[in-house]
Specification:
5-stranded parallel β-sheet; 42% helix; alpha/beta; 4-stranded antiparallel β-sheet
Amino acid sequence: MDKGASVRLLVVDDEPHIADLVATVARYEGWQAVTAGSGEAALRTAADFHPDIVVLDLMLPDLDGFTVLDRLRSTGAMVPVVFLTARDGTADRVAGLTRGGDDYLVKPFSVEELMARLRAVLRRSTGPTWKRSVLKVSDLVMDEDTREVRRAGKLVTLTPTEYELLRYLMRRSPAVLTKAQILDHVWEYDFGGRSNVVELVVSHLRRKLDDGAGEPLIHTVRGVGYVLRRAAE
């Protein structure tokens, strides 16, 4: 894998909404992502796409995930694989890992957890040259691998919701985000007069980020929403 290039991810799942969701989130991370809905399609796509990592469902309509992995390995492809499955038995977990899988996640799962596991697998497989995913705005730094947030070098402890809201603001900075956009991205439901929850979490974030620090970073744009940037920008 070329550490200077974006990660190439192949998502194999016969449930299109799952495959598309994972691929969409990966693209949001700056990765290249393609999907396949069957084992045979996965093998054809892998041969053309040359993925850096694969998310592989065990239960596919033609070949099972183990067979797909065996065929990948038989071609000499040592691409890391993270299995997805609805089966959570210990025997299945052991089988997945002993058959050459690098990690194992049970459905239903959090896409954020899956992305964190993919980054961890890539870090292990590529060694110390793996580029960490770090966001930075002014003196605010977020390490997406460790989920640590620091302001002026001081660790800031956030709840999961506060973290996701801040991450969204940092990734889109200096764009102004509406409350509806934030609700849809962080809480995953449509805007319907529930902007007070956004206001509450933003208020908590401001207190934590500005505690003993310099200028405020989260600004209200009246009638629109919020933006994270230096005041001078």
